Amino acid sequence: MSKSDLSKYTQFLSVGAEIAAAIILPIVLGYWLDDYFNTSPWLILTGCLVGIVNVMIVIFHLADRLNK
Question: Which residues contact 8 (CB under 8 A, 6 or more apart)?
Answer without folding.
Answer: none
